[in-house]
Design goal:
There is one protein chain. By secondary structure, this protein is an alpha+beta fold. It folds into 2 domains: about 1-125, no CATH class; about 160-210 and about 215-254, SH3 type barrels (Roll). Helix content is about 50%, strand content about 20%. It is elongated, with a radius of gyration of 27 Å. The protein starts with a helix and ends with a helix.
Length: about 250
C-alpha cells in the first residue's frame, strides 16, 4: 500500500511538467509531444515540473507559513513501510487535505498556462526562427508556411510571402507526372515525416509528353476542391514563395 502511495506522489509531482509539455507542443507541433518513449517523456517533463514546484514553494507555500519536511518526503518517495511513519503521514494528509488539493490543482493549472504561454511567446518573438535551440522539429511547417525564410542562413523574409505554390514530381502507374497547385494542408506520419499533402487548384502534365511536338497545352486541370498526394509516390517537391508586390513591380518595370 505504501508503494502505491509513493507511486501516486511521484505521479502528481510529474503531472505539471507533463502538462507543460503537452500544451507547449500543440497544433502543428503536436506530433513532437507523442514521439518520445514514456521514459523520454518523463525525463523531458522533469525540469519544467521542477521549475513549477519551485515557483509555487517560493512564492506561495513558504510565504503563507507552510513548511515541508523533506526528510519525511524523501522517505515517502523511497517507499518506506514503517507503521509509525505511515500513520504520521496519513495524519498530516488528513489534516492538510484541502491545502494539498489546492497545491496540486494550482501546479496542474500552472503547468497548462505556462506551457501555452511559453509556446505563444516563442512564436510571437520568432525565437524558433532565429535560434535553433528554440526550433520545433516539424520542419514541414517552416517549409510550407515560408517561415524558413527567416532562418539565419536563408535569404528572404517571411513577411514578403503572400502565397505558396507547389510543384510535385509524382510516380504513378501511368508514368511520371508533374502536379502543381496551392498547398492547403499536410498530414504528418508517425515518424514526423509527411504522409500526404492536400493541394487546391491543381494541374498536371505527363513528363513523357514534354518532347512531343504539337502539344499546345501540356497541363490540364483536375476537378475537385482538393487533390491528395501520398508522399510515398512523390519523387521530389518544389515549393515557390510569391510576393504580390514583387510580382507587380516586375510587371510594371517590364
Amino acid at each position: 500500500m505504501n508503494l502505491a502511495f509513493s507511486s501516486l506522489v511521484i505521479f502528481f509531482l510529474f503531472i505539471p511538467g507533463v502538462l507543460f509539455r503537452r500544451f507547449y507542443f500543440t497544433e502543428e507541433f503536436s506530433k513532437q509531444y507523442f514521439k518520445p518513449s514514456f521514459s523520454e517523456l518523463l525525463l523531458s517533463s522533469f525540469f519544467p515540473g521542477l521549475f513549477i514546484h519551485a515557483f509555487l514553494l517560493a512564492l506561495v507555500v513558504y510565504p503563507l507559513g507552510y513548511k515541508i519536511d523533506y526528510y519525511i518526503f524523501g522517505l515517502i518517495l523511497l517507499g518506506n513501510s514503517e507503521a509509525q511513519l505511515i500513520q504520521e503521514i496519513a495524519s498530516n494528509v488528513d489534516h492538510f487535505s484541502s491545502e494539498i488539493l489546492w497545491y496540486f490543482s494550482a501546479s496542474i493549472l500552472l503547468g497548462i498556462v505556462l506551457g501555452r504561454f511559453t509556446k505563444t511567446m516563442i512564436r510571437r518573438t520568432m525565437l524558433d526562427r532565429k535560434y535553433k535551440l528554440f526550433r520545433f522539429k516539424n520542419e514541414w511547417h517552416y517549409l510550407f508556411s515560408g517561415e524558413i525564410l527567416d532562418f539565419p542562413r536563408v535569404s528572404g523574409s517571411y513577411e514578403e510571402v503572400d502565397f505558396r505554390y507547389v510543384d510535385a514530381l509524382v510516380q504513378t502507374n501511368e508514368g511520371v507526372f508533374i502536379y502543381n497547385g496551392f498547398p492547403e494542408e499536410y498530414i504528418l506520419s508517425k515518424d514526423g515525416g509527411i504522409d500526404r499533402i492536400y493541394l487546391s487548384d491543381v494541374r498536371r502534365r505527363l513528363m513523357k509528353e514534354d518532347n512531343q511536338e504539337g502539344k499546345k497545352e501540356r497541363y490540364y486541370r483536375l476537378p475537385g476542391k482538393f487533390f491528395v498526394l501520398p508522399y510515398e509516390h512523390i519523387i521530389n517537391l518544389h515549393i515557390v514563395y510569391y510576393s504580390i508586390e514583387a510580382e507587380l513591380a516586375d510587371h510594371s518595370s517590364a
